[in-house]
Design goal:
By secondary structure, the protein is α+β, with helices and mostly antiparallel strands. It has helices at residues 11-23, 40-44, 63-73, 89-97, 107-114, 116-125, 141-151, 177-192, 249-265, 297-304, 308-316, 396-409, 419-427, 429-432, 440-448, and strands spanning 4-7, 27-33, 47-52, 77-79, 101-102, 155-163, 166-171, 197-201, 207-215, 221-233, 236-242, 270-278, 284-290, 333-340, 342-343, 349-350, 353-354, 357-359, 366-370, 377-378, 385-393, 411-413. Helix 2 links the parallel strand 2 and strand 3.
């Protein structure tokens, strides 16, 4: 087992990883930007290294600075968390060449599954259903039009290097296609420095269901049930739950086995997630693979009783998974609300600032993952996520009631947050009945905001 792990991230996920390491008796090194010198993760780690100015590209996205921090502190492994360099195969390869263990999959697996067009081909070869679309990348509008004519409108133009809804545009007709194509390519170039795109059939009213995987270096790949991530604003998840109110056991096993088959086909090791779109008839289609731990991993931890971050570390150290598929059982229901520093009543604009007072909810079945503390100044340079509120209860309705109670206890003064917006969702009859899809927030926004 590693003696010292460097955490190449910030915020609540860095705190989460440090806590997991501490329980395992592993020393930790935090890296921080100049804007994060007073951040909680830098304060609670055994050691900390400032790696550059506030902009991410000069700090958290600077692989040379991170590896130099390993060198000076003697860290043997790097946990990248999510975002930043977590899905960067070039960084994983640099770690390998420097003799530092990257706590995640191999760079080869990341290369195959990180390029979305290549991942589609891999899924097809593994016998996993994909949405109809172009056979590969489309170089120009004419190729995109040919693919769209073949699969039928509406279609999506999607960046092969995309993520988080960026570099993705819908076209409902041939007339809309040129504009969607140009916009998707421009956004992909700006966001990922890669303007390559492909075409997919637009699935009507789908659910966004993902399957959590764990795989070790001894050939064992397991699925840990699903998470429903359909509550999204502009393709950004804001609330997740497990199990999904839409799923049944037959579909769960079918999707789980498909996810395992795909991971096995690329020799995957570590924690990862296969994301699917599921239509109203419960047909499912591969969308993408996230080759890292995800923001919403706590809901899976709640219903399985497993610590996914510790499992990542153990697998990276070469240990076999200590359980088999038959040992995995889902118990109860879990919901996660992402608490963001943003103002829902002003188009969700970011709301950095100083935390004047803070009260975290507690009680049975309540967990808060956060890096906030009273007096902390939330910087304007990074993602607006400041906390994750997770509840677990025997039934979905009990989990909803528990989440309402916990949200009502959550006090963050000094910045605007989306806490009240989450309460509106948790009180909406359609959500309570489980009647939602990825278009839910688009249809309900005015009602949820009381407009």
């Amino acid at each position: 087992m590693f003696k010292k792990v460097l955490v190449a991230n910030r915020g609540e996920i860095a705190v989460r990883i440090i806590r997991a390491c501490r329980e395992m008796g592993i020393q930790t090194v935090a890296v921080c930007s100049e804007a994060d010198r007073d951040a909680l993760h830098a304060q609670i780690a055994d050691d900390d290294v400032c790696i550059g100015p506030a902009p991410s590209r000069e700090s958290y996205l600077n692989p040379q600075a991170i590896l130099a921090a390993c060198e000076v502190t003697g860290a043997e492994a790097i946990h990248p968390g999510f975002g930043f360099l977590s899905e960067n195969p070039a960084f994983a390869r640099m770690c390998e060449r420097c003799g530092v263990t990257f706590i995640g999959p191999s760079y080869k697996s990341m290369e195959r599954m990180g390029d979305k067009a290549e991942a589609r081909k891999t899924a097809v070869a593994a016998g996993v259903p994909v949405t109809p679309g172009s056979e590969g990348l489309v170089a120009n509008v004419d190729e995109a039009r040919a693919a769209a004519n073949r699969v039928g409108y509406p279609v999506l133009i999607k960046a092969t290097a995309g993520g988080g809804g960026r570099g993705m545009r819908a076209a409902a007709s041939a007339e809309e296609l040129p504009s969607a194509f140009a916009t998707a390519k421009a956004e992909a170039l700006a966001s990922f420095n890669d303007d390559r795109v492909y075409v997919e059939k637009f699935v009507k009213n789908p659910r966004h269901i993902e399957i959590q995987l764990l795989a070790d270096t001894h050939g064992r790949v397991l699925h840990l049930g699903e998470r429903d991530c359909s509550i999204q604003r502009r393709n950004q998840k804001i609330l997740e739950e497990s199990p999904s109110p839409f799923m049944d056991e037959r579909l769960r096993q079918k999707m789980g086995l498909a996810a395992v088959r795909l991971a096995e086909s690329v020799g995957y090791v570590g924690a990862g997630t296969i994301e699917f779109l599921v239509d109203e008839q419960k047909n499912f289609y591969f969308m993408e693979m996230n080759t890292r731990i995800q923001v919403e991993h706590p809901v899976t931890e709640a219903v399985t009783g497993l610590d996914l971050v510790q499992s990542q570390i153990r697998v990276a150290a070469g240990e076999p998974l200590p359980f088999r598929q038959r040992d995995v059982a889902l118990s109860g229901h879990s919901i996660e609300c992402r608490i963001n520093a943003e103002d829902p009543h002003h188009n969700f604009r970011p709301s950095p600032g100083t935390i004047e007072s803070l009260h975290l909810p507690g009680g049975p079945g309540v967990r808060v993952d956060t890096a906030l503390y009273q007096g902390y100044a939330v910087p304007p340079f990074y993602d607006s996520l400041v906390a994750k509120l997770i509840v677990h209860a025997p039934t979905r309705m009990e989990a909803i009631l528990r989440m309402r109670r916990a949200l009502s206890e959550f006090l963050i003064a000094g910045i605007a947050t989306n806490i009240d917006f989450h309460l509106s969702i948790l009180r909406d009859p359609e959500f309570i009945e489980g009647r939602y899809d990825i278009g839910y927030l688009g249809r309900k926004m005015d009602a949820l905001l009381g407009r």
